[in-house]
Design a protein that fits this description.
heterodimer, A: alpha+beta, 2 domains, two-stranded antiparallel sheet, 13 helices, B: alpha/beta, 6-stranded mixed sheet, 4-stranded antiparallel sheet, 7 helices, 10 strands, about 35% helix, membrane (chain A), transmembrane (chain A), transmembrane transporter activity (chain A), Macrolide_Exporter_MacB (chain A), transmembrane helix (chain A)
């Protein structure tokens, strides 16, 4: 039998039982739609996080005291501004080095107050990280060297304290100490779960005086190019270990962060897909079931086809194609439904979703495979049917 | 001398029903010559249907030798047997066995599907065959739009479309009124006159009497042959 003819026969058989075919297909439709939508959500989340990490800036090296591994005890930082000077000499360009000392502080302006993440930083921060100002100016080298009490507000803090009023030149207090606002940041939103608009940047020297400490929490270095990151990382860690023999230092690149996050999200996406896959499996069992019913119903037809010369293989292929047609049609409908669902989730909810060609191709391939796997048993049964017995069935 | 269409030599068929051995045929010898016209008669349970299935290659004997078109059925694979049914044998059943929802033309063309014929060729040959059985006006009709006699003519056209040497008809008039039955028999006879061997299974003595020779079955054996 020609394959084209076999397809036509399969299509006719499905058309003959439209409602039944549709209901059987529904199981596959839901399964495939679930796979496409959930993988889309997993992929979208991953892409968003990757964008956020990359949005920090390019060729970044983050240096923190302590070991970056599960179960490692948090280390109190021994780093001071002297270390920053030493690292600047290693890097050869002070403008490529950023530091931070963090502290959650209450900020006030007049009668309004709020909670902000105070960051003591160098004037280099906007060039090391990607950070754009909305109004005013950023800290200067003089601000840092003299420990001047000036502040640059995140968009959220500026809104909380000043509303629509231009905050430039106005006074605020941070932890009870007066600072003058010299600039505000563009709105940035969340990044890796941290509200970047709740930051207030002040000179690291002013922050240290406010907190009564000499320490800094961490360093960030922007390498001139990707190739030099590893060498730079080793040199920086060696210099710091030299200066603080009792402390371990860790340097991580964006690639490493992305790698770890990517692994976690990959597993998460895989688990989502597997859960959705189970519903696809259930759909497949439904297909198998209905195909067995179909074989039984059409016993006489099978007998006749055999009597006029159909080989067992011809009958088997006919029923297998019928199952595959059911599941692939269901697969296409499921792809559409899953795609639309993912797009709606992306548009209407905070959860990001992205459609990928591979998840569509995978879902379609799996639906075809489900048809083959779950169609084989009914098809074999049909193919092996004894024509005499089949013809006698009334 | 031409090869006989079918030669059965001491053919038996035993069924195994839940461990109990039931002999449906107990040593039947029979030759259907090319262009023969044979009626197999007998009561229900005499083994005539079993014999018919064997002669048509739908089943295999459990004993004896059966040659269809000169080929030993016991030595054929299931695929070869299917091909034999497709090329050498034409079946006509009591209950027509037409595919519902399928036009007369496509029903008649069905056997050609299994020899890989294209759609156009199938339809051309089916149309010619429907014209041959007097149904030129029913080509696009479905079984439920036709009378019993017309349906049986479609079935006969289907049996003939591959140009078989033997036509096996199992109670072909059993579901038809007598006038329609007569016309179906007349059709079979005219085909026989053109050289197709016809083997007719019937319990109707009148129908059997029209055949060139009769074989009477009883309890799985041939009790009389003429």
């Amino acid at each position: 039998m020609r394959l084209a003819e076999a397809w036509r026969v399969a299509l006719d058989a499905l058309r003959a039982n439209r409602l039944r075919s549709l209901l059987t297909m529904l199981g596959v439709v839901i399964g495939v739609a679930a796979v496409v939508a959930l993988v889309g959500i997993g992929t979208g989340t991953k892409q968003q996080i990757e964008q956020q990490v990359e949005g920090l800036g390019s060729n970044l090296l983050l240096v923190v005291p302590g070991r970056l591994q599960a179960g490692a005890a948090p280390t109190s930082s021994p780093l001071t501004m002297d270390d920053v000077d030493a690292i600047s000499r290693v890097v050869g360009d002070r403008s490529r080095v950023a530091v931070t000392i963090n502290s959650g502080e209450t900020v006030r302006a007049g009668s309004r107050s709020g909670f902000a993440s105070m960051q003591g930083v160098l004037e280099t921060t906007p060039t090391v990280f990607v950070r754009r100002l909305d109004r005013g100016a950023y800290l200067t080298r003089t601000d840092v060297s003299t420990g001047r009490r000036v502040a640059v507000l995140g968009a959220g803090v500026a809104g909380d304290l000043f509303g629509d009023v231009d905050p430039i030149g106005r006074q605020i207090t941070i932890g009870g100490v007066r600072f003058r606002v010299i600039g505000t940041f563009e709105r940035l939103g969340q990044s890796l779960g941290v509200d970047r608009d709740g930051e207030v940047h002040v000179p690291v020297t002013a922050a240290q005086r406010l907190l009564g400490t000499e320490r800094i929490d961490g360093l960030a270095i922007r390498a001139p190019d990707r190739e030099r990151i590893d060498d730079l990382s080793a040199a920086v860690v060696a210099t710091l270990t030299d200066r603080h023999p009792d402390t371990d230092f860790s340097a991580v690149t964006q690639e490493q962060i992305l790698g770890v996050l990517g692994d976690i999200l990959g597993v998460l996406t895989g688990v989502l897909a597997a859960i959705a896959g189970i519903s696809l499996l259930v759909g497949g069992v439904g297909v198998s079931n209905i195909m067995l019913v179909s074989v039984r119903e059409r016993t006489k037809e099978i007998g006749l086809r055999k009597a006029v010369g159909a080989r067992p293989r011809d009958i088997g292929v006919q029923f297998l194609l019928e199952a595959v047609l059911l599941t692939t049609t269901g697969g296409v409908l499921g792809m559409l439904l899953g795609g639309v669902t993912a797009l709606l989730v992306d548009r209407l909810s905070p959860v990001p979703a992205a459609l990928t060609w591979w998840s569509m191709a995978l879902a379609f391939g799996v639906s075809a495979a489900v048809g083959i796997v779950f169609g084989v048993v009914p098809a074999q049964r049909a193919g092996r049917l004894d024509p005499v017995v089949a013809l006698r069935t009334e | 001398m031409t090869t006989p269409a079918i030669v059965a030599d001491d053919v038996s068929r035993t069924y195994d029903l839940d461990g109990v051995s039931v002999a449906a045929l107990r040593g039947v010898s029979l030759t259907v010559e090319a262009g023969d016209y044979v009626a197999i008669v007998g009561t229900s349970g005499s083994g005539k249907s079993t014999l018919m299935h064997l002669l048509g290659g739908l089943d295999r004997p459990t004993g004896g030798t059966l040659l269809i078109g000169g080929r030993d059925v016991a030595k054929l694979t299931p695929d070869e047997l299917a091909e034999l049914r497709n090329t050498t044998i034409g079946f006509v059943f009591q209950s027509f066995h037409l595919l519902a929802r399928t036009t007369a033309q496509d029903n008649v063309g069905l056997p050609l599907v299994y020899r890989g014929a294209g759609r156009r060729e199938r339809r051309d040959r089916a149309t010619a065959m429907l014209e041959r059985v007097g149904l030129a006006h029913r080509i696009t009709h479905r079984p439920n739009q036709m009378s019993g006699g017309e349906q049986q003519r479609v079935a006969i056209a289907r049996a003939l479309v591959t140009g078989p040497s033997v036509l096996l008809a199992d109670e072909p008039t059993g579901n038809l009124d007598s006038a329609t039955g007569q016309s179906v028999l007349a059709l079979l006879e005219s085909l026989n006159a053109e050289g197709v061997a016809v083997v007719l299974v019937t319990h109707d003595r009148e129908v059997a009497a029209r055949a060139r020779r009769q074989i009477v079955m009883k309890d799985g054996l041939i009790s009389a042959a003429g």
